[in-house]
Automatic annotation (TrEMBL):
Belongs to the class-II aminoacyl-tRNA synthetase family. One of its GO terms (cellular component) is cytoplasm. One of its GO terms (biological process) is histidyl-tRNA aminoacylation. The lineage of its organism: Bacteria, Bacillati, Bacillota, Bacilli, Lactobacillales. This is Histidine--tRNA ligase.
Length: 432
């Protein structure tokens, strides 16, 4: 019998997990700079939270949900994305209240689940980092948020990216555009994919988001939503463009871009990687404004703007651009213990050194001196402490600095009482 991980999931092993930590730590630093604070929501939610906000006709809800009935017959689902849970939490915990600053800026990171056809950059358990800002209609929030996402990629060393924006307008815009789109698509109905045929009257904007080749060709000629923007939406979009220009942020407009979630209004954006070999999974970050979502989930009318980025795709992009992740491969001290009699003393030594706040390790396998020194070298130990049976009986330990080759025997009590001083003495660039 051999067990394998479920299809579309990954084990992140050392060598790779360092890269994840680097990405996550970089994100946390950026969020600090922009004053976003973390919310952690449960991995599963009531089905309704997702279906109501993401939309019943979306691929996510209609095909990709990991939903089930629990033992109490509650319909729950693993979360497929982060915004709906955050909005649910925002409403449930009344984060719109007067005691909280506005806009309320929050971020999250963690696993998301979608039943998709797995391929490079498309998994069933994948990981997102996302940010949301609640309570301001100011287009400066849209632009700050996009700038923050770009800043994050810049900090990671990712260079070959482009920002693509569009506007989906407000309610008024959507009503007039919906009819124009139906009028355009109806005569071509026979050529559309089955999914798109079904969605044409239910939710025609979904047809624009179809991944079907023939659908894609048909929608290239579709009327542009930008020609239908209400005066308010037009002004919002114009201001967003002006602000991007003022910040010297280059962008493209794609009037066919609608995104895979129903809750967006006005500004939407994607950040795409232009690195070679990214294939169809080149969108590494996506988001936009969702001014009706808080109300949809039972809260007071509250505008919102947010985005999510896929960590797996970010790492593929970093590989494609040959970005090196800094790894710390260094340890302050390594104990070489020779002979089984030194076992207990080695344990006491390594713990004492750690209690002084230094990193340290030792041999546990009773290996020969040569093998232990080799390990110390591989770990780039700054100090190697050697304890043989003779040293043990004399109550001393031999300390060697691997950087300046200083070597000196110390009483064991020095290590226990003042290892910090021993460390400074041995690593200083003066002979001992
Ligand atoms: P796509 O069009 O590629 O399916 P999407 O529109 O479904 O993406 P969103 O729901 O907006 O994507 O999610 C935001 C980001 O999360 C994406 O840009 C991508 O980086 C990442 N992402 C989404 N689905 C997956 C997945 N199944 N595996 C890995 N990353 C994903
Ligand atoms: Mg998708």
């Amino acid at each position: 019998m051999s067990y394998q991980r479920p299809k579309g999931t990954n084990d992140l092993l050392p060598g790779v997990s360092e890269k994840w930590q680097f990405v996550e730590e970089t994100a946390r630093l950026i969020f600090r700079d922009y004053q976003y604070q973390e919310i952690r929501t449960p991995i599963f939610e009531h089905y309704e939270v997702i279906s109501r906000s993401v939309g019943d006709t979306t691929d996510i809800v209609s095909k990709e949900m990991y939903d089930f009935y629990d033992k109490g017959d509650r319909h729950v689902t693993l979360r497929p994305e982060g915004t709906a849970p955050i909005v649910r939490s925002f409403v449930e915990n009344k984060l719109f209240g007067p005691e909280f600053s506005k806009p309320y800026k929050t971020y999250y990171m963690g696993p998301m689940f979608r039943y998709e056809r797995p391929q490079a950059g498309r998994l069933r358990q994948f990981h997102q980092i996302g940010a949301e800002a609640f309570g301001s209609e100011n287009p400066a929030v849209d632009v700050e948020s996009m700038a923050m996402a770009l800043d994050f990629f810049n900090q990671l060393g990712i260079k070959q990216i482009k920002l693509v924006i569009n506007s989906l307008g407000d309610k008024e815009t959507r009503a007039t555009y919906r009819q124009a789109l139906i009028d355009y698509l109806e005569p071509k109905m026979a050529e559309l994919s089955d999914d798109s045929k079904r969605r044409l009257h239910e939710n025609p904007l979904r047809v624009l988001d179809s991944k079907d080749k023939k659908d894609k060709a048909i929608v290239t000629e579709a009327p542009s939503i930008l020609d239908y923007l209400s005066d308010a939406s037009k002004e919002h979009f114009e201001t967003v463009k002006t602000m991007l220009t003022d910040l010297n942020i280059p962008y493209e407009i794609d009037s066919n871009m609608v995104r895979g979630l129903d809750y967006y209004t006005n500004t939407i954006f994607e950040i795409m990687s232009e690195a070679p070999g990214m294939g169809a999974q080149s969108t590494i970050c996506a988001g936009g404004r969702y001014d009706g979502l808080v109300e949809e989930l039972g809260g007071p009318s509250t505008p919102g703007f947010g985005f999510a980025l896929g960590i797996e795709r970010v790492l593929i992009t970093m590989d494609a651009e040959n970005v090196e992740v800094p790894v710390i491969n260094e340890i302050d001290a390594y104990i070489v213990g020779l002979g089984t009699e030194t076992n207990i003393e080695s344990l006491k030594l390594v713990q004492a050194i750690r209690n002084f706040g230094f990193s340290a390790d030792r041999d546990f396998m009773n290996r020969k001196a040569k093998a232990q020194f080799k390990t110390a070298g591989k770990l780039n130990a700054k100090l190697v402490l050697t304890l043989g049976e003779n040293e043990l009986s004399e109550g001393i330990v031999n300390v060697k600095s691997m950087e300046n080759r200083n070597e000196k025997a110390f009483p064991l009590t020095d290590i226990y009482e003042k290892f910090d001083e021993v460390y400074d003495e041995m690593t200083a660039n003066t002979p001992v």
